[in-house]
Amino acid sequence: MVGFVLVVGFFAVRWHWTDVQGSIDANSERFSQALLGKEAQAQSKVLGVENEKNYTDVNSLDDLDFQIKQLSEKKALKAKNYCMIDVIGQYSPGTASKIIKIYQQTDADILASKMILAARIRVEEKNGNSVFAKCDAGNIQTDDDLIGKKYLGAESKTIFPWMDNEQWNTIRQAIVKDKDVIEKASLIAGIEPRLLVSCAIVEQVRLFNSDRELFKKFFEPLKILGNANKISLGIMGIKENTAIKTEGHLKDSNSPYYLGANLQNVLDFENGSGGNNRYDRLTENTHYYSYLYGAIYLKQMMTQWEKAGYDIKYRPEIAGTLFNVGFPQSKPNPNPKVGGSNIDVEGIKYTFGSLAYEFYYSGELIDAFPYVVN
After folding, report:
1. 345: how many CB neighbours lie within 10 A of its CB?
2. Secondary structure (3-state) at 150
3. Sign of the CA dihedral with 333 first, then 337, 343, and 345 last
């Protein structure tokens, strides 16, 4: 029975029973706001996180003036961030608590700003953007310590609808159990584990929420079967044609997706070539090859963009969009759009890329898949 359940789940992904039409996300431009000006410079050194090591050595009065300006801007940004955290806390104290905890641990203003944006979008959907008007006005005075004490440790219903259901509990447990193979696959490909997890989670949220009956009949019951409660097949939703192209790009040194000689043979088959061997890989129970194909696939598109002069490894919303739409739609440009498959979760409309951003900056699963600081 378990084998039948898993096979049905796999073919639901393989044959695209749950595919839906894609689009550009309504918030596409907002996701780019945190990449303007000096924030973009900070990201060139840190994966989603800014820290004190990003400040340059003082060798002249000009350097000193610049650092004084940086510190002034940092103070203003921190005040604005805490103002918005206070607003978010009025609707979800637990979400505010999570942001504050990570903010205090990292002192990373850019990271906090992105976490705040993810939560702010959800607050504004129900309450309008006027609730943040005071924070957006400028010249804000906040008592950061008081706000921290007000919310730190608070618990409440999450502000993110996709976390507030039984599907998320199943996905969450499955992903954490796969931590070791996720880290192994990410290390081989040279990408951040949390980025890979972002795409895996969105693929599963998309699957579960596009066919609730499939979830209830074939996935939810597996929670009582110990290790079998994992979503065992097709966890990354890698299509066979995409897998074939991913293998091919590893061999083609003229391809913009080429990753170098050190990874040229990483997906070689020991016994023969593709076909059934590829199917066996994508259906094996450890999920290692599902994650490895996903990680290599992501790295190839990130490499294509980097070779064209655009760094997207700090853009989970763009990497997620490309993961969803595939090689043919991966066209490097200075103003990439966030989008992909449309996903409806509890009446809230997402695109694949926006949900990848929302998970990445939600702070969820942070103990298992932390933000990486260089």
Report:
1. 21
2. helix
3. positive
Please name the residue that has the structure tokens 């702070």: 363
| Whole-number Å distance between alpha carbons of 118 and 113 | 9
- List pLDDT tens digits, range 208-217: 776 655 555 5
| Average pLDDT score over the chain | 81
Give the C-alpha distances (Å, rounded to integers) separating 245 from 9, 194, 239, 317, 363: 24, 24, 10, 23, 33
Tens-place pLDDT, residues 25-58: 777 777 776 554 444 443 433 344 444 444 444 4
Q: How far is it, in rounded angstroms, from Cα 355 to Cα 366?
A: 16
How would you class 128 by CB atoms within 10 Å of its CB: exposed for 0-12, middle for 13-18, buried for 19 or more?
exposed
Segment 199-254, tens digit of pLDDT: 999 988 888 776 655 555 545 544 422 222 333 347 888 888 899 999 999 999 99
Rounded to the nearest angstrom, the gap between the alpha carbon of residue 89 and the centroid of all alpha carbons in its chain is: 23
The one-character DSSP state at 341 is E
What residue ranges do the domains of the chain occupy?
Answer: 2-27+161-349, 36-151
> Side chain identity at 142, as an amino acid letter?
T
Pairing of strands 22-24, 339-345: antiparallel
Predicted pLDDT at 314: 85
Q: Are 10 and 283 within 8 A, CB to CB?
A: yes
